[in-house]
Design brief:
about 30% helix, globular, 3 helices, alpha+beta, 5 strands, about 150 residues
Length: about 150
């Protein structure tokens, strides 16, 4: 089954590639890998929620936002790859979580992204990952996701 077919079975539509909010490109290919810039959980060009996880945003809502940001990262990678079917595997995922100083469940938030890649790619979605707590993110986003894939 192709990745496009798998997305259709899951009822997932890849969003349009988000326009950069500064001086960078959404993704770039070097050799057989594509890396994305940090992708925010933008939906139709805006953030559905802003604030810190552990204060204004719950852990569960943040995991959902990580899933949205991961889809945006996948769209950027697929654009450079010439289509999502050209992506062979997910290599690395980095999830930044804007959270309060006492919030320590960044890995649970990052699971929103990791589980999505498992649903889409199966075993080829298994990846290395970092989940990092930060004081703030651009535009007040609760999460940002970086992705590296192999083509």
């Amino acid at each position: 089954m192709s990745i496009e077919d798998r997305l259709a079975d899951l009822g997932i539509d890849l969003p349009p590639v988000a326009k950069p909010v500064a001086a960078y490109v959404p993704a770039i290919q070097v050799g057989d890998q594509i890396s994305t810039s940090g992708q925010l959980p933008l939906v139709s060009g805006s953030l559905p929620m802003t604030g810190l996880v552990g204060d204004q945003i719950s852990q569960g809502d943040a995991a959902g936002q990580a899933r949205v940001a991961a889809l945006n990262a996948l769209a950027a990678a697929a654009d450079v790859a010439g289509g999502v079917n050209n992506i062979r595997r997910v290599v690395r995922v980095v999830v930044y979580v804007a959270s309060t100083a006492d919030f320590t469940a960044q890995p649970a938030v990052a699971n929103g992204a990791s589980e999505l890649f498992g649903e889409i790619f199966g075993d080829a979605g298994r990846h290395i990952r970092s989940a990092i707590g930060v004081a703030s993110l651009p535009l007040g986003a609760p999460v940002k996701v970086e992705l590296t894939v192999q083509v």
